[in-house]
Amino acid sequence: MILRYLLSIRHHSLQSHYLALVNVFLLHDLFIFVIVIGGFSIAVFIVRRLFNKKLYKTTSETIPARWITILQQQVPFYAMLSSVEQDHFNQRVMEFLLNHKITEADTKITIEDKLYVAASAIIPIFKFPHWRYSNLDEIIIYPGSFNHQFDTRGKGRNILGMVGNGYMEGKMILSQKALRLGFQNTTDKKNTAIHEFIHLIDKMDGVIDGIPRLLIDRPYIIPWLDMIKQKVEKIYLNESDINPYGGSSQIEFFAVACEYFFERPRLLEKKHPELYNMLENMFAHDLADRRPGLKPTSIGRNASCPCQSGLKYKHCCLA
Questions:
Q1: Which of 58, 90, 215, 257 has the most CB atoms around its CB within 10 Å?
Q2: Residue 137 phi, psi dihedral angles, 5° rounding
Q3: Closest CA to 186 of 86, 92, 119
Q4: Do 279 and 231 touch, CB atoms closer than 8 A?
Q5: How far apart are the first and last CA of the chain?
Q6: Within 13 A of 58's CA, how many CA atoms are on the CB side?
Q7: Per-residue pLDDT tens over the stretch 288-309
Q8: Listed residue (53, 51, 72) closest to 63, CA to CA
């Protein structure tokens, strides 16, 4: 009996050791399996991202003459450029419209609207020829203001532009009324479309925080934040001509300051020289030294078309 008992204990002990070893091998194999599957999943994700990434389309087509007329008459920034720079601007406008969908929602958009959107996108990045809005697929144009539920009717409609996130990632929403006003009123230091594209530029480093790390060197970040703090304090004290909306956050201050910079550069340099210099360094623009942009002029129906086609205005770009 004692011998049988001892043998049974030994058998049970061996069985326990065997099960323990089996469990160790199973856990080891499971660990290896998880690592292999995880690595494979990551590799598949990277490959799919690489292959699914849209190639940026280019074009060798010539911009339509009517588009040039619209840009010359209605986009002051364009009118400040040399002929060579205008050719470059034209090309980038064509490519922007080729790569980014512009969709109307409860309204009808015109070629002017599309050119306003494209110009607003190109103006901030004009000095960076290889810059692309890789974080934007579609611009949706609403007739007017909207709310956070994207309602265009009813109460609470105080939003004129928005850069989407979450399920709206890759989309921008603009009020058509605000889009047009940004180019019709060139003295109010406001341009909603440029404002939203500045947010996109801010977002390209991974987060919208008012610190465009792709445009500003690390040593200048603290001075930039200190300047924002000082300017916001002036806004709160009602001692600044900067749009009060810029006082709501450093994110909005950056966008509002850029509106001012691109629309009224000489005035910004005069009233806020340090801010002007900082933005000038960020965007590689010296706008204050350029001649003022041409303001829209009235063209008679029977006058020669400014696109130099040789036709009357009413039979060419006005048609």
A1: 257
A2: -110, -40
A3: 119
A4: no
A5: 113
A6: 5
A7: 777 555 444 455 677 765 544 5
A8: 72
Nearest Cα to Cα of residue 174 among 134, 131, 136, 140 = 140
> Residue 229: CA atoms inside 13 Å, Cβ hemisphere, count?
6
pLDDT digits (tens, 9 = 90+) for 112-155: 999 999 999 999 999 999 999 998 999 999 999 998 888 888 78
**Range scoring the smallest mean pLDDT among 36-50, 195-209, 215-229, 241-255:** 36-50
CA–CA separation, 224 and 232 (whole Å): 12
Length of the chain measured in residues: 319
Task: For residue 146, list its beta bridge partners.
Answer: 159
Alpha-carbon gap, residue 283 to 62, rounded angstroms: 27
Closest Cα to residue 260, out of 226, 245, 112? Answer: 245
Homologous superfamily of the 65-289 domain (CATH): Collagenase (Catalytic Domain) (3.40.390.10)
Q: Given the structure tokens 């919208």, which residue do they identify?
A: 208
- Strand-by-strand arrangement of the 101-104 sheet: 101-104, 138-142, 171-175, 161-163
Buried b / exposed e across 109-125, counting CB within 10 Å, b at 16+? Answer: beebbbbbbbbbbbbbb
Helices (H) and strands (E) in the chain, counts: 11, 4
Q: What's the alpha-carbon Rg for the chain, to the nearest Å?
A: 29
| Position 81, amino acid | L
Contact 210, 228 (CB under 8 A): yes
CB 280 within 8 A of CB 274: no
Report whether 292 contacts 276 (CB < 8 A): no
